[in-house]
Structures are given as C-alpha cells and as structure tokens.
Specification:
The protein starts with a helix and ends in a 7-residue tail after the last strand. A hairpin with a 2-residue loop joins strand 10 and strand 11 (218-219). It is built from six helices and 15 strands. The protein is 31% helix and 23% strand.
Length: 261
C-alpha cells in the first residue's frame, strides 16, 4: 500500500504541473471545433433509387417446378421447348413483346451465389442448375416489377432457319401440348393454368414491324403489335405450309387471344 500510495501521490503532483498545458491544448481544440462548426462541409447527395419487388421468387421452389414441368414433356426429338417468362405488371402487351432485357434482368442470389440468368427478348428464360443457390435458399430477383409468387410458363415451337412449318407439324405440336397436359396430375395446383389451357394455335412475334405469317401464300390478319396469331384449322391438317416472313423472334403455342402471357 505504501508504494502504491507514493506512486499515486507522485502522479498527482505531475498532474498539477501539467494542468496548464492540458488547458491550453483543450482551448486550441475547442477553437478548431468552433471553426469547423462555422464552415460545415456540404452535404453529400446520394442518388440511390431502390424498389422492393414483391415478385422476387424462391429459387429452389421454381427450379424444382421447372424440372417437374420438363418431366411431363415429350421425349426428344420433340417440337416444343419449355420457357419461363417474367410476369410483368407495369408493361403493356406490346411492350412485353418488344422488351429488351437490361443487364441483370433476372438474377439468382444466395449467400455465396450471384448468377445472372440469360434472358431473351420478350423476357423469356430458363433457370440454370445452381446447386449452391439451391442449398442456400437462393432468390430469383427481377429488375422489372413482377407479380407476387407468380411466373408465366410458356411453350416455344421449334423452327428451322428457313422459318417454315408444315400444317401437319402444326397439328403435331398442338397434339404434343395436349399429351403433356394429360400427364400433369390434376392435384398439381401449381400447374393448373398449364393443364387447363386451350391448345388452339400459335403466336408468332417478330423483331420489327412488318413481319407476316402466311398459310399457302395467303396472309392472316390477326396481328397485334409485333405479333401475329393463327388458330389451328383441322380442315388444313392434311396439307399446306405456314411461312413466317420477316425477322422472327419467337413462336409460341397454346391459347390464342389471351393477354398476360
């Protein structure tokens, strides 16, 4: 205790001798603070715009749904391909058809994954197989505002570079679609819209105005924006040819005249 008391006493003495120095330093600091308060720095303007999208989706659930949908399709070689489409809420039908995806239009994000998904014109895509995102409960994020807990499912008709389709193959594509519907169990509620969709015809969309669809040389008139619709005519099933003239973007099969695809 004596040594400790002596040290404290000595320290107290040194403190008394140093007190004027501390006061001088404190005065200097106070003056600097006052000066800084008189000339404040200009406020930073942060230009960040963010919108919460209720349409962001669970990657695991929808990747499993994609794999299940593929299991109902005809084996190769087949005429149809499966596609997801962004369920736009702020774009008109014409705007959806001409939609050019910006970078990161669709992205899968999880704790260790950030994978940009290839998206084609019109907002069509297929989810990639990402095991880590699957394990980490990843999220499908959309740049455009989209419907909550919803995504569109569509079926693309395969065409060669000559952009021609026999009417018989048109009928076969619709038959393939109907056979797929029959393979979907009625209790699979997530596929209810696919199972009960009407297989009526095709919808061809072009990249530029002026594209036409002709049947045996005669044009059809059911055109909306960049897209033309053709309802299947069983009377033509035995022959004839459909020609898509112009820069073709995509041909889909299913219901004709239905918005919100």
């Amino acid at each position: 205790m004596i040594n400790l008391l002596l040290k404290e006493t000595a320290a107290s003495s040194r403190f008394k001798r140093s007190l004027p120095i501390f006061i001088a330093i404190a005065s200097l600091i106070g003056a600097q603070i006052a000066c800084a308060q008189e000339t404040p720095e200009p406020e930073r303007v942060i230009n960040v715009k963010a919108r919460k999208n209720p349409g962001d989706l669970d990657y695991r659930f929808f990747f499993k749904g994609q794999q299940e949908a593929l299991s109902y399709m005809a084996p190769e070689p087949r005429l149809l391909d499966f596609l997801f489409r962004i369920s736009f809420v702020e774009l008109s039908e014409n705007a959806r058809d001409s939609y050019v995806p910006p970078p990161h239009a669709v992205t899968v994000v999880s704790e260790s994954v950030e994978e940009e998904v290839p998206v084609r014109r019109g907002g069509y895509f297929v989810l990639p197989d990402l095991p880590k995102a699957y394990e980490e409960d990843g999220t499908i994020m959309f740049k455009e505002q989209s419907k909550r807990r919803s995504i569109n499912v569509l079926y693309q008709l395969r065409l060669g570079p000559e952009q021609r389709l026999s009417y018989a193959d048109f009928g076969k594509a619709l038959a393939e679609f109907k056979a797929m519907q029959k393979r979907i169990p009625i209790y699979k509620l997530k596929f209810v819209h696919v199972k009960f969709a009407k297989a009526e015809g095709l919808r061809a969309c072009f990249r530029e105005p002026g594209g036409t669809v002709t049947v045996d040389g005669g044009p059809i008139a059911a055109t909306t924006g960049l897209c033309t619709e053709l309802t299947f005519d069983p009377a033509r099933a035995s022959g004839g040819e459909i020609v898509f003239d112009g820069p073709l973007d995509i041909v889909l099969v299913g219901e004709v005249g239905k918005e919100g695809r």
